[in-house]
Amino acid sequence: MNAFSRRDLLRVGLFGSATLATAGLLGSLSGCSAEGPANGFTMLRDSDLPLLRRVTQVVLQGAVPEAKMPAAVQDTLHNLDQGLTHVSPALYRQVSQLFHLLALPVTRGPLTGIWGSWEQADDEAVEAFLRRWENSALALLRQGHAALLQMIQMAWYGCPEAWGHCGYPGPPPI
């Protein structure tokens, strides 16, 4: 296996920087950065929801019966939204940038392998994206994977519907 030369490393760094700069420029020109919260949400934007719905649905497979999946996904997103109201502005900006990077078509395809919309992505494509980021040689992608999954899982296990699946009887009555 060939090791990266310094020149190759510089090319990858320049390509990554150019990609992120382009995404930021396109986002600011399209007005995405000024997008307000989606209807019924405090922090999550309309552009965040397709990504989060698909990834949440894949993450919850096996823990939720198919018939209850739409309600479980919606409850999880509302819990995630409420959780984001309690984070620092700096952390929220980072989370928002992650969601924006994954939602923007120009960066979504190269970074995730999902070239169409999130709504059209099948489960296998979403799972492949998650595995790709989990096992990436780039620490930033591994961190993005961990952050995305941890937020979704924390939001799900905050739902009373999740407690029975993991054996938690719920808080004691007061």
Kindly describe this structure.
This is Twin-arginine translocation pathway signal protein. With 174 residues, the chain is mainly α. The chain has one domain (36-162). 63% of the residues lie in helices and 0% in strands. It has eight helices and no strands. It has helices spanning 6-30, 49-59, 69-84, 89-103, 105-112, 123-134, 139-157, 160-163. α3 crosses α7 (139-157). The N and C termini lie far apart (62 Å). The model has no long low-confidence stretch (mean pLDDT 87).
Which helices and strands appear, and what pairs or packs with what?
Elements: H1 6-30, H2 49-59, H3 69-84, H4 89-103, H5 105-112, H6 123-134, H7 139-157, H8 160-163
Helix pairs in contact: 2-3, 3-7
Organism: Stutzerimonas nitrititolerans
Protein name: Twin-arginine translocation pathway signal protein
